[in-house]
């Protein structure tokens, strides 16, 4: 027996995905989408979709009159599982301290590591679930979450177990990444710690089968290119697809490494060169740009238009972490437009279809085409342009995950009745 989970109909603008020529969007005015057994069964003009799938027969009938309907956001880079509070570091950065100064003093990642090692599994899980709630209310239906605040086998495994439990419990799909090589822990030398990641942590992670990707912070003063390569190659041998934090604070060759090892993505890329971009395009590695991080650091933004113009499928993520405390893909997309030069349509694709590529998802995730997961964000606004336009405002009204309504606004929505 198939179930008609949901029909969302009468949308002022329904975005099915990128246009066929990959320029602009495929949209329908007075559009609808029908979801059967968790998957998009039909998308198009309301009259056509509802003739085959009458809303009155659906478990969830959503009248989207005057509203835009877009694919749920895919956030392909976060460190959303942590404990502790680093707001004082934000204030210190405003007074002129650098991210590296803070790390060198035992703050930053190392401070979060101390807090996470002290936190029990229950606390960590409730922290992550609360963040997922906020992300979902902002329209995110799939999110990647990294370990990397344990930096020892026991705590890295604890983090991955929590990520796995959150995926089971919460409507948001949580994609697990092992990042034992996120920083060199206090009291260790980088070479010895690299060996511990490869010889102790990775075999333990492999035996539990609870990670899909392996990431490394390839950065001046953190892990060199050759140490990063050791970790990623051992990760690949353990069945984990590589990802690389590359050229964030300095240019040391992490992008070329990502291309060499066939990574799913190379992320940050603030200092990537034209040659680096070409290498990513040739190796089909998705660049993930993180404008919220540059915003918080007061750093120059990655040049998104250079990636686009050289043929890359640019993805955008929040990088939500204690150093970049934003759950909102909408805010990241605003920055991608205003500070990085993407159009609203390109930014939306970067936060949906291209973000799904960064997670190696080829099932239509990030679109509302037939066969794609039924993950939908209904906006309290008439077009996708309002996502970047209403910066700092959550324009997401109702969210469906696999055809079920999983988030509704807590207030009466007047926006839907607003006249242009
Ligand atoms: N750059 C390395 N890792 C994180 C920051 C993590 C932290 O500061 O806690 C990032 O991607 O921005
Ligand atoms: Zn990161």
TrEMBL record:
Residues annotated as binding Zn(2+): 77, 79, 245, 319
SUPFAM superfamilies noted in UniProt: Composite domain of metallo-dependent hydrolases, Metallo-dependent hydrolases
Single GO BP term: L-histidine catabolic process to glutamate and formamide
Binding site for Fe(3+): 77, 79, 245, 319
Enzyme Commission number, as recorded: 3.5.2.7
Localization: Cytoplasm
Any one GO cellular component localisation term in the record: cytoplasm
Family stated for the protein in its record: Belongs to the metallo-dependent hydrolases superfamily. HutI family.
Protein name: Imidazolonepropionase
Organism listed in the record: Haloarcula amylolytica JCM 13557
